[in-house]
């Protein structure tokens, strides 16, 4: 017999056996013969690491047995996840719901895999859980992306505050200011304005320290419009006074130094003390 024919026949038989093994395992799984399905699939996958169907079914076996971590790990290894996207999302949601209180690391892994498999998929509970976990793990970029998505979808006060608090924690002042224009007026509460005002103040202070007077003044005056958080107001007046001196406006400078003192009239140290000293120097 021709050698090529023999090779082809052997290859055909081999593929046929593989296919039958996977089909048999799938049938076993449907019949509840989970251990037998597991044996067939594990032996098959060891030799066929790119067989998406077999790997998916093996993940289903682990899911059926309640071995959730193994199921997630196996689902991650599927080369062609798109072929089983809907089934995978349903399976992973099931795992998430089962473990979100009792085994949060497993729930975290299932939630993260959902977003990898389907970036357009959105469910608020899953995204909130994932965002909070990212923050705890110090994955701030990932957390920011998650909270931005929640804000884009929900446009409610809770999602806004979560995003602003995260951006403030990251010192992402420019992003806070960029976000400001998309915030509905009814959400501009004292708490939100304090974060926005703080961002204006910090950017103004950075420009002041870099001796960029015009840019510093622009942001400090934006802060003055909000006047929140109040704890930064005295320092803002002091910085504005120094900026006005740089711009040659001594009268405005003195007035702002007086504003520092008015906020803390009884205090003899810190900024009020510095302001009094500057006024004396300017009056000589």
Descriptive overview:
- The protein is mainly alpha-helical and 284 residues long.
- The protein has 15 helices and no strands.
- It has helices spanning 3-30, 34-47, 52-64, 68-76, 85-99, 104-117, 124-136, 140-154, 157-169, 173-180, 190-209, 213-226, 233-246, 250-263, 270-283.
- The chain starts with a helix and ends with a helix.
- The model is unreliable at 4-13 (pLDDT under 50).
Keywords:
284 residues, Serine Threonine Protein Phosphatase 5, Tetratricopeptide repeat, 15 helices, mainly alpha, 77% helix
Write the layout of secondary structure elements.
Blueprint: H1 3-30, H2 34-47, H3 52-64, H4 68-76, H5 85-99, H6 104-117, H7 124-136, H8 140-154, H9 157-169, H10 173-180, H11 190-209, H12 213-226, H13 233-246, H14 250-263, H15 270-283
Helix pairs in contact: 1-2, 1-3, 2-3, 3-4, 4-6, 5-6, 7-8, 8-9, 9-11, 10-11, 11-12, 12-13, 13-14, 14-15
Helix content: over 70%
Please compute the radius of gyration using only Cα atoms: 31 Å
Q: What is the average of the pLDDT values?
A: 91
Structural class: mainly alpha
Largest sheet: none
User: How many helices?
Assistant: 15
CA-CA gap between termini? 114 Å
- Would you identify the regions where 5 or more consecutive residues have pLDDT less than 50? 4-13
């Amino acid at each position: 017999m021709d050698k090529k024919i023999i090779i082809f026949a052997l290859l055909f038989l081999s593929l046929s056996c593989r296919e039958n093994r996977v089909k048999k395992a799938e049938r076993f799984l449907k019949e509840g013969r989970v251990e037998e399905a597991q044996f067939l699939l594990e032996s098959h996958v060891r030799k066929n690491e790119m067989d998406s169907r077999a790997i998916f079914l093996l993940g289903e076996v682990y899911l059926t047995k309640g071995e959730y971590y193994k199921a997630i790990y196996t689902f991650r290894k599927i080369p062609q996840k798109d072929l089983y996207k809907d089934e995978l999302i349903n399976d992973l949601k099931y795992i998430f719901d089962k473990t979100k209180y009792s085994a949060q690391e497993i729930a975290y892994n299932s939630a993260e895999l959902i977003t990898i498999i389907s970036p357009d998929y959105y469910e608020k509970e899953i995204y909130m859980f994932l965002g909070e976990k990212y923050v705890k793990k110090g994955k701030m970029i990932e957390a920011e992306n998650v909270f931005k998505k929640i804000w884009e979808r929900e446009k409610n006060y809770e999602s806004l505050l979560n995003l602003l608090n995260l951006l403030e924690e990251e010192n992402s002042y420019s992003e806070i200011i960029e976000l400001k224009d998309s915030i509905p007026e009814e959400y501009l509460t004292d708490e939100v304005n304090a974060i926005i005002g703080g961002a204006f103040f910090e950017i103004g202070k950075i420009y002041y320290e870099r001796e960029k007077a015009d840019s510093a003044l622009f942001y400090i005056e934006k802060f003055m419009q909000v006047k929140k958080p109040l704890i930064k107001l005295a320092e803002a007046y002091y910085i504005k006074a120094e900026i006005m001196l740089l711009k040659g406006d001594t009268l405005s400078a003195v007035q702002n130094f007086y504003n520092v003192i008015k906020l803390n009239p009884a205090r003899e140290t810190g900024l009020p003390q510095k302001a009094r000293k500057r006024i004396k120097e300017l009056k000589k």
